[in-house]
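anyone seen this seq b4? input:
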Amino acid sequence: MRRTRIAGAVLLAGAVTGLAAGPAQAQEYRYWSFWDGTGSSWAYATEGPATVRPADGAVAGFRFAVSADSATAGKPRAAAGFDAICHGTPAKDGRKRIGIVIDFGTAADAPGGERPPKARTECAQVGEDASAGEALAAVARPLRYDSNALLCAIAGYPESGCADQVKGAKEPASSASASADAAADGDAAAGEGDGGPSAGLVGGVAAVVVLGAAAVWQARRRRG
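predicted toks r here
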Protein backbone atom coordinates (compact mmCIF):
# COMPACT_ATOMS: atom_id res chain seq x y z
CA MET A 1 0.00 0.00 0.00
CA ARG A 2 2.84 2.35 0.95
CA ARG A 3 4.61 1.73 -2.37
CA THR A 4 1.39 2.32 -4.28
CA ARG A 5 0.88 5.72 -2.65
CA ILE A 6 4.47 6.76 -3.20
CA ALA A 7 4.32 5.69 -6.84
CA GLY A 8 1.07 7.61 -7.27
CA ALA A 9 2.64 10.76 -5.85
CA VAL A 10 5.63 10.41 -8.14
CA LEU A 11 3.40 9.87 -11.19
CA LEU A 12 1.33 12.91 -10.27
CA ALA A 13 4.47 14.98 -9.85
CA GLY A 14 5.64 13.87 -13.28
CA ALA A 15 2.31 14.84 -14.78
CA VAL A 16 2.52 18.31 -13.23
CA THR A 17 6.04 18.73 -14.55
CA GLY A 18 4.95 17.69 -18.02
CA LEU A 19 2.10 20.18 -18.01
CA ALA A 20 4.32 22.99 -16.78
CA ALA A 21 7.20 22.31 -19.13
CA GLY A 22 5.08 21.53 -22.17
CA PRO A 23 4.70 24.13 -24.92
CA ALA A 24 2.05 26.75 -24.16
CA GLN A 25 0.68 29.39 -26.46
CA ALA A 26 1.07 32.39 -24.17
CA GLN A 27 -1.03 35.50 -24.50
CA GLU A 28 0.82 38.25 -26.33
CA TYR A 29 0.82 41.96 -25.54
CA ARG A 30 1.70 45.13 -27.39
CA TYR A 31 4.02 47.16 -25.17
CA TRP A 32 7.25 49.06 -24.58
CA SER A 33 10.11 46.91 -23.30
CA PHE A 34 13.24 48.25 -21.60
CA TRP A 35 16.83 47.20 -22.39
CA ASP A 36 20.40 47.75 -21.17
CA GLY A 37 22.86 48.36 -23.98
CA THR A 38 26.57 47.64 -24.26
CA GLY A 39 28.38 48.24 -27.54
CA SER A 40 26.37 46.35 -30.14
CA SER A 41 24.46 44.07 -27.75
CA TRP A 42 21.26 44.41 -25.74
CA ALA A 43 20.12 42.68 -22.55
CA TYR A 44 16.57 42.74 -21.20
CA ALA A 45 16.65 45.03 -18.16
CA THR A 46 16.16 43.41 -14.77
CA GLU A 47 14.98 46.69 -13.23
CA GLY A 48 12.50 49.27 -14.43
CA PRO A 49 13.77 52.60 -15.76
CA ALA A 50 12.24 54.42 -12.80
CA THR A 51 14.52 52.59 -10.37
CA VAL A 52 17.74 51.97 -12.29
CA ARG A 53 20.17 54.92 -12.18
CA PRO A 54 22.71 54.47 -14.97
CA ALA A 55 26.21 55.88 -14.76
CA ASP A 56 27.61 58.34 -17.25
CA GLY A 57 28.25 56.49 -20.50
CA ALA A 58 25.36 54.01 -20.18
CA VAL A 59 22.84 53.29 -22.92
CA ALA A 60 19.14 52.58 -22.34
CA GLY A 61 16.96 51.11 -25.07
CA PHE A 62 13.18 51.07 -25.53
CA ARG A 63 11.39 48.86 -28.06
CA PHE A 64 7.68 48.79 -28.92
CA ALA A 65 6.63 45.35 -30.06
CA VAL A 66 4.24 42.42 -29.62
CA SER A 67 5.48 39.56 -27.44
CA ALA A 68 4.50 37.31 -24.55
CA ASP A 69 7.53 37.71 -22.28
CA SER A 70 11.16 38.75 -22.09
CA ALA A 71 12.36 35.63 -23.89
CA THR A 72 10.44 36.58 -27.03
CA ALA A 73 10.60 40.37 -26.81
CA GLY A 74 12.12 42.18 -29.77
CA LYS A 75 15.34 44.06 -29.06
CA PRO A 76 16.03 47.60 -30.26
CA ARG A 77 17.37 47.29 -33.80
CA ALA A 78 19.90 50.12 -33.53
CA ALA A 79 23.36 49.57 -32.08
CA ALA A 80 23.90 50.37 -28.42
CA GLY A 81 27.12 52.36 -28.84
CA PHE A 82 27.39 55.30 -26.45
CA ASP A 83 30.15 57.09 -28.39
CA ALA A 84 28.08 57.18 -31.57
CA ILE A 85 25.03 58.50 -29.73
CA CYS A 86 26.65 61.10 -27.48
CA HIS A 87 29.72 62.18 -29.45
CA GLY A 88 28.23 65.66 -29.97
CA THR A 89 27.32 66.22 -26.32
CA PRO A 90 30.29 67.37 -24.20
CA ALA A 91 30.55 66.26 -20.59
CA LYS A 92 29.58 68.73 -17.83
CA ASP A 93 30.39 68.80 -14.13
CA GLY A 94 27.51 67.59 -12.01
CA ARG A 95 25.76 66.03 -15.02
CA LYS A 96 25.85 62.65 -16.72
CA ARG A 97 25.13 61.55 -20.28
CA ILE A 98 22.88 58.60 -21.05
CA GLY A 99 22.46 57.29 -24.58
CA ILE A 100 18.79 56.68 -25.38
CA VAL A 101 17.68 54.39 -28.21
CA ILE A 102 13.98 54.42 -29.09
CA ASP A 103 12.70 51.80 -31.52
CA PHE A 104 9.01 52.35 -32.31
CA GLY A 105 8.73 48.87 -33.82
CA THR A 106 7.31 47.64 -37.10
CA ALA A 107 4.07 48.36 -38.93
CA ALA A 108 2.97 44.79 -38.12
CA ASP A 109 3.23 45.55 -34.39
CA ALA A 110 1.52 48.93 -34.58
CA PRO A 111 -2.00 49.38 -33.19
CA GLY A 112 -4.72 49.63 -35.82
CA GLY A 113 -4.69 52.90 -37.71
CA GLU A 114 -1.24 53.99 -36.51
CA ARG A 115 2.16 54.06 -38.19
CA PRO A 116 5.33 53.74 -36.11
CA PRO A 117 7.67 56.76 -36.24
CA LYS A 118 11.25 56.28 -37.33
CA ALA A 119 13.67 54.99 -34.72
CA ARG A 120 15.63 57.64 -32.87
CA THR A 121 18.76 57.93 -30.78
CA GLU A 122 19.21 60.76 -28.29
CA CYS A 123 21.84 61.80 -25.78
CA ALA A 124 20.18 62.77 -22.51
CA GLN A 125 22.24 64.99 -20.22
CA VAL A 126 20.73 64.79 -16.77
CA GLY A 127 21.60 65.13 -13.10
CA GLU A 128 24.00 62.63 -11.59
CA ASP A 129 21.20 60.95 -9.60
CA ALA A 130 18.70 60.75 -12.47
CA SER A 131 17.00 57.48 -13.37
CA ALA A 132 16.76 56.00 -16.85
CA GLY A 133 13.12 57.05 -16.86
CA GLU A 134 14.09 60.66 -16.17
CA ALA A 135 16.67 60.50 -18.95
CA LEU A 136 13.98 59.26 -21.33
CA ALA A 137 11.64 62.07 -20.29
CA ALA A 138 14.37 64.62 -21.00
CA VAL A 139 14.54 63.70 -24.71
CA ALA A 140 11.30 61.96 -25.73
CA ARG A 141 8.26 63.82 -24.44
CA PRO A 142 5.37 63.49 -24.34
CA LEU A 143 5.32 60.30 -22.28
CA ARG A 144 2.04 58.71 -21.30
CA TYR A 145 1.44 56.52 -18.23
CA ASP A 146 -1.57 54.63 -16.95
CA SER A 147 -3.01 54.76 -13.42
CA ASN A 148 -0.53 52.08 -12.31
CA ALA A 149 2.45 54.13 -13.53
CA LEU A 150 3.01 51.77 -16.47
CA LEU A 151 4.65 53.53 -19.40
CA CYS A 152 2.19 53.45 -22.28
CA ALA A 153 3.63 55.84 -24.87
CA ILE A 154 6.95 57.44 -25.78
CA ALA A 155 6.97 60.63 -27.82
CA GLY A 156 3.21 60.25 -28.07
CA TYR A 157 3.34 56.75 -29.60
CA PRO A 158 1.04 54.91 -29.55
CA GLU A 159 -1.79 57.39 -29.29
CA SER A 160 -3.93 55.11 -27.11
CA GLY A 161 -3.85 51.78 -25.32
CA CYS A 162 -1.43 50.40 -22.78
CA ALA A 163 0.03 46.88 -22.78
CA ASP A 164 -3.05 45.70 -24.66
CA GLN A 165 -3.66 42.02 -25.33
CA VAL A 166 -3.28 41.04 -28.96
CA LYS A 167 -6.21 39.01 -30.26
CA GLY A 168 -5.62 35.50 -31.49
CA ALA A 169 -3.61 33.92 -28.66
CA LYS A 170 -5.29 31.21 -26.60
CA GLU A 171 -3.95 31.47 -23.08
CA PRO A 172 -5.47 34.33 -21.03
CA ALA A 173 -3.28 36.53 -18.89
CA SER A 174 -3.67 39.80 -17.04
CA SER A 175 -2.25 43.12 -18.14
CA ALA A 176 -0.38 43.16 -14.83
CA SER A 177 1.72 40.21 -16.01
CA ALA A 178 2.44 42.07 -19.21
CA SER A 179 3.66 45.08 -17.27
CA ALA A 180 6.04 42.87 -15.34
CA ASP A 181 7.76 42.01 -18.60
CA ALA A 182 7.34 45.18 -20.54
CA ALA A 183 6.95 48.20 -18.41
CA ALA A 184 9.31 51.03 -19.01
CA ASP A 185 8.72 52.27 -15.50
CA GLY A 186 9.29 51.24 -11.89
CA ASP A 187 7.22 48.09 -12.30
CA ALA A 188 9.27 46.68 -15.21
CA ALA A 189 10.44 43.10 -15.27
CA ALA A 190 12.22 42.59 -11.99
CA GLY A 191 13.12 38.92 -11.98
CA GLU A 192 13.02 37.62 -15.51
CA GLY A 193 15.91 37.93 -17.93
CA ASP A 194 16.35 36.74 -21.50
CA GLY A 195 15.25 33.12 -21.75
CA GLY A 196 14.42 32.91 -18.04
CA PRO A 197 12.15 30.16 -16.68
CA SER A 198 8.43 30.75 -17.07
CA ALA A 199 6.15 31.02 -14.05
CA GLY A 200 4.47 27.78 -15.12
CA LEU A 201 7.73 25.88 -15.13
CA VAL A 202 8.71 27.23 -11.71
CA GLY A 203 5.29 26.25 -10.38
CA GLY A 204 5.69 22.76 -11.79
CA VAL A 205 9.04 22.28 -10.10
CA ALA A 206 7.59 23.51 -6.80
CA ALA A 207 4.74 21.00 -7.11
CA VAL A 208 7.22 18.18 -7.67
CA VAL A 209 9.11 19.14 -4.51
CA VAL A 210 5.92 19.28 -2.43
CA LEU A 211 4.56 15.98 -3.72
CA GLY A 212 7.88 14.23 -3.27
CA ALA A 213 8.21 15.48 0.29
CA ALA A 214 4.68 14.30 1.06
CA ALA A 215 5.45 10.81 -0.21
CA VAL A 216 8.58 10.51 1.93
CA TRP A 217 6.70 11.77 5.00
CA GLN A 218 3.92 9.20 4.52
CA ALA A 219 6.45 6.38 4.13
CA ARG A 220 8.33 7.32 7.31
CA ARG A 221 5.11 7.71 9.27
CA ARG A 222 3.99 4.20 8.38
CA ARG A 223 7.38 2.75 9.32
CA GLY A 224 7.01 4.36 12.75
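The helical segments are 2-21, 82-86, 132-139, 175-182, 199-223. The radius of gyration is 22 Å. kinda curious what u guys think
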